[in-house]
Amino acid sequence: MKKIKFGTTNEQVSAVVFGCMRLNKAKDPVEVIQTAYDHGITFIDHADIYGGGDCETIFADALAKTSIKREDLFIQSKCGIIPGKLFDFSKEHIIEAVEGSLKRLRVDYLDSLLLHRPDTWMDPFEVNEAFEALHQAGKVRYFGVSNQNPMQIEFLKKGVQQPLVANQLQFGLMHTGMIDQELQVNMKTPGSFDHDGGLLMYSRLHDMTIQAWSPYQYGFFEGVFIGNEKFPELNQALEEMAEKYGITPTGLASAWILSHPANFQVIAGTMTPSRIVEIAKASEVQLSKEDWYKLYLAAGNMLP
Ligand SMILES: NC(=O)c1ccc[n+]([C@@H]2O[C@H](COP(=O)([O-])OP(=O)(O)OC[C@H]3O[C@@H](n4cnc5c(N)ncnc54)[C@H](OP(=O)(O)O)[C@@H]3O)[C@@H](O)[C@H]2O)c1
């Protein structure tokens, strides 16, 4: 398993993250967790809202049936979304959400806590109070954000004293906005539009780890692009190149993310043990720059 440095911390963590959003759909949660662990995936991503909280409980129940020790895992959760109602970065909500996650996960601390989606009412000094209280109580080790742009992160930094070490963002072969914008700067093409304020450059400049969520999906959860007849050129390129590197198209799609020098993590959400193995094995494969661009183009992108 490839390891990466987690943001500005001194932690070396697995480049592939086991995403738990769909854990309540797993046929055998024990088997998937054990498979991930056996193949070096020790970074676990949760959120207080996954499965309405059930995913954290299912994880704890399954983990108890293995011999995996809590200290051998790097457990992350996210908070700040009250589904269908509001996004809430208030001190009260952040602390309450973390207490809930700790209880459901049956652990004493989270290795990492991310603010799930930006709350337009956020007050950086109030967030700071929550983070400091959690950190000082030994309940959260590191902090970060999710789905936030550079200006929002800078705004948070006005009050937050803890380093913000990670940003979880949608990214993959069919979701390349961060790259398109860099490659098409100053053009009148649709790809030149900077939706996110130079997010990739900002993350690299500040050594924030980008965690790529839904790496196999196109659109906003519209489906998986692997083996999908809507994307013949991409799938042909994936199949041919996968053979060259001795991995599978599924493995290659995440190796494409991990091969970029920005030090990404990839969050795999599959609950199929064989796919977990394919993704884990491919993490060690470093694509050449030529092949990386070849897949980028096969995914329907252009170079000016
Ligand atoms: N921060 C955020 O806002 C945010 C948003 C969404 C997700 N996330 C995180 O990202 C994680 C991953 O998200 P995701 O589950 O949407 O991502 P994903 O890994 O792109 O998708 C996994 C889903 O695709 C299916 N699938 C079908 N063919 C596949 C193939 N060849 N390879 C891989 N998967 C295939 C899987 O089915 P099987 O299970 O049947 O294999 C599973 O349902 C989540 O668990 C969560 O931790 C974060």
From TrEMBL:
Annotated protein name in UniProt: Oxidoreductase, aldo/keto reductase
Q: Which residues cross the membrane?
A: none
State the signal peptide span: none
PANTHER family xref list: NADH-SPECIFIC METHYLGLYOXAL REDUCTASE-RELATED, OXIDOREDUCTASE YDHF
User: Which molecular-function annotation in GO is an example for this chain?
Assistant: oxidoreductase activity
Domain of life, per lineage: Bacteria
- Which InterPro entries does this chain map to? AKR, AKR_Detox_Biosynth, NAD(P)_OxRdtase_dom_sf, NADP_OxRdtase_dom
For this record, an example GO cellular component is: cytosol
What residues does the NADP-dependent oxidoreductase domain cover? 16-293
Q: Name the Pfam families on file.
A: Aldo_ket_red (PF00248)
